[in-house]
User: Fold these one by one.
Assistant:
Number 1:
Amino acid sequence: MSARTTVKSIQDLMRQDVGVDGDAQRLSQLCWMFFLKIIDDQDQQLEVMQDGYRSPIPNKLQWRNWAADPEGITGEALMDFVNDELFPALKDLSARGASASRARVVRSLFEDAYNYMKSGHLMRQVVNKISGVDFNNLVERKHFGEVYEQLLNDLQNAGNAGEYYTPRAVTAFMVDRIDPTPGETLFDPACGTGGFLTCAIRHMRERYVKTVADEHALQSGLRAVEKKPLPHMLCVTNMKARGYNLDIKNPHSVAAEHGDPEQLLASLDAAEQQADALREQLKAILSEALLR
């Protein structure tokens, strides 16, 4: 089954669930479920490639141990597990040791996540379809990334909650003009669902990344913040689905961790003002280009 067909069939199942209302909630639900499958696939690969690697997610909560078996828990037992064990544990996941950075990514996503589904039987059907996607397969991952991008575009085109997301043609133009290179710091202070980041990464990989060192320089130079819960979740999953190891900061969760929320949010406001100024400059550049 293709990635597009899989996602469509999952959406159809979610429409039958009385707890999931509207495209935004369906996408949010899809987001955390796909995220757990993606990170578990990555963990299994890292366990093979790195001696001593351990997933930051406790064994009982790993996708392979509660979701992968198509005849596994379902109905009320599944709902109780998700609501009473999975979510509380991942929202409070400890970030220590060698896997601390991955633990922080998991925790930050689940701080914004919510389980909207009410039917454990429908959730089992959704889980079984997600289990059929292998995110360690480059072809499947690429196809899913394209489908996920289309889902994001559909949500954005609908004008969800009055929010505006930069069209991909504009982000591509911005990246082309900026021409980022590995080793430079690239910061998006209001990254939304990650459109600018994905364009920038694709641009650098196509033009400049020739060695493992180049890829490391690319990854280490990326910075991003998104303070709204739904876009933050979507961006984190978007990055993971494409194999990008980027920790998207949520200022509210980071502030809670470091105990200085006012200072952090003030810094974010200043960064957003700078972003607004850059947008005005971009408008001027676009206007000048169109007049030529």
Note: The first helix runs from residue 3 to 15.
Number 2:
Amino acid sequence: MMTLASLSILNSTFASEIAQCDACPARSRHRVLFTVGYLDFCSHHYKKFEVALTSQGLGVINRE
């Protein structure tokens, strides 16, 4: 289960790491947080699944 401390760590590491989208080889721009982990998405796939992801996830971290 995700705790506030683990969410903070995920937020800071996502900003500095180079992550790949979980749906294609593009660079990840959005990290969707769930109670048991997270999924990374490029902008294209995030927009495609945004409604489902935001309704099921705890939150979204967007890379600037």
Note: The chain is about 40% helix and 20% strand.
Number 3:
Amino acid sequence: MKNIFLIMVSLILSIAMLGVLVSCASGESAEDITEPKVGIANVPAAPTPIASPDKVKLALDWFPNSNHLGLYIAEEKGYFAAENLEVEIYTPSDPSSVLATVASGSDDFGMNYQPDVLIARGEGVPVVSILGMVQHPLNSLMTLETSGLDSPADLKGKKVGYPGIPWNEHALASMLKADGLKGLEDVELVNVGWELGSSVMSERVSAIIGAYFTHESISLENEGYPVNVLRMEEWGVPDYYELVMVTSEEYLSENPGIVERFARAVSRGYVEAIRDPQAGVDILVKYAPETDEKIDRPGADLLQQLWQDDEGKFGRQNRDKWVGFAEWMQENGLLSEDVDANKAFTDEYSLK
């Protein structure tokens, strides 16, 4: 019996030892699987650093209005951010200084006017247009509908108000000549400054030139004074870009990548504005609560077509329009003969 008992105890101890050995073996296998071997291949790669956005300043030509919808759309919808740009959009205290501040580098980009860009280049200011923002003149000749003055020739012997801008005088002269008059000698010019609307409403003058038909004409109609709009390019003045986006020659040369990304984001914004101008005004109001929607909503609808060229593309600029207007300015003594209009713009960054 004693022998049998000893045999049973030995058997039990053997089975127990076998279980311990199996357990240890299993533990080692699990450990081998769950604990990776340390080596260079297993060290996680460092995350790729995200470049800080390039900061740029954009000076507007005037207070925010429907002309600027695409800019605020680009900001609101992240088109600038998508191009890794941080854009400061602001209105200078003196908008007439935009070309000077862009040329000096105080501002990187600016909204301005084709005639002014040409004049500035004639004075040695090295700015260049990178986008044609508004494809045709907004500046126009206006008369009250009740006046019966429906064409430039009807203004013979009348007073015409203007803002004191010299080239506006020559534009009026071309319009008068295109309708058979001799020119400025047939009218009386009155410098009314920026009181264009009030001067024609009060009948201090019979017509005004220098007013935008996408703004002043709407404002006048809202006041109960609907007007006739005589567009410059239909009466003897060469077609031109009312608004352009400019940068300096130096900035363009040193930062072509930023210029390309900026132009692309701006273009995306204006394509959206063309698609839905009223949605663009909604965004404008968010950034500029002082916006007069009674003017800028109808203004945006008028601009919808003016933001596009004949092929429906935004931003394009062509040689004929730049050279043709420059030649007209030179013929009228407004621009020196040595100004090369071909160097005043580039169409490299517009939508193709």
Note: The chain has two domains: 54-136+241-343, 139-234.
